[in-house]
């Protein structure tokens, strides 16, 4: 039985996607749900969020086979299949499949093999399923109940291969023009990739090769990085927020938007997250999520209530994602 894979993706950058995956991974760990965080963005920002500079140096200089590129490198060289992965243990319930800047070298190979699938080439299917098989191998070995995938902001071959590996996709958004324009492009692209993979998977010549279903089911959207004044978005963002439900329904779900739906009552909106500006640098310095900050880290005074609010926000979001993905939620809730 495969482990559910949830990708977090928007082809518009700067929407807080990596921070979202990082905090959700820690929240699931806190909720006693074993999770694999997979960094499939060649920029490797998620990996940098999890690991100290010293640990990063050790990983890339002494354990290059501990990254996603180390796993797929034999396929790029044409000398074999994926290597046995060596993920990074972050906590008892949290494992990291580290990213790697060298992964960008895999882009052209993935692009070429996408077409070769139509010719029933065995190697093409091994290349395109490499991400999926690597993640499933680690998740199975670590007893993970779900996989969270961080992706870069583009519609290239790496992200196409990563997204066909996903059962679900969550779309982080910021309330601005460019985020909405990215959303308009994203929906049709996901449908095209899903349809194209369905055509290809029928031509697989290798019996028993583990391939992703490529369902890429939209799970919902999350709005991040909005400014708050009196608990409401400032007027500069209100018009963009108001447009999100309609654009998401029409472009991502491919259906007509219901009248009267706003971001506050849209069932597709998973969360409207605050931007914890003053706490983010503190958390980065401490190499921990915002909701783990302690007075010793500098979280004192008004920061204490903000840390607690952040925990509640992410706990609620984590459980909503579990519900939408039909994953059994934890019995015990851990809100402080």
Uncertain regions: pLDDT < 50 for 5+ in a row?
Answer: none
Helical region count? 12
Largest sheet: 8 strands, mixed
Number of strands: 10
CATH class: Alpha Beta
Order of SSEs: EHEHHHEEHHHEHEHEEEHEHH
Helix content: 40-55%
What do we call the CATH homologous superfamily?
A: P-loop containing nucleotide triphosphate hydrolases
Count of spatially separate domains: 1
Description:
Helix 5 crosses helix 6. The strands form 2 sheets. The protein has an 8-stranded mixed sheet with strand order 3-4-2-5-1-6-7-10, sandwiched between helices. It has a two-stranded antiparallel sheet with strand order 8-9. The model has no long low-confidence stretch (mean pLDDT 90). The protein starts with a strand and ends in a 12-residue tail after the last helix. It has 336 residues and is α/β, with parallel strands linked by helices. It has one domain (5-324): 3-Layer(aba) Sandwich (Rossmann fold). The protein is built from 12 helices and 10 strands.
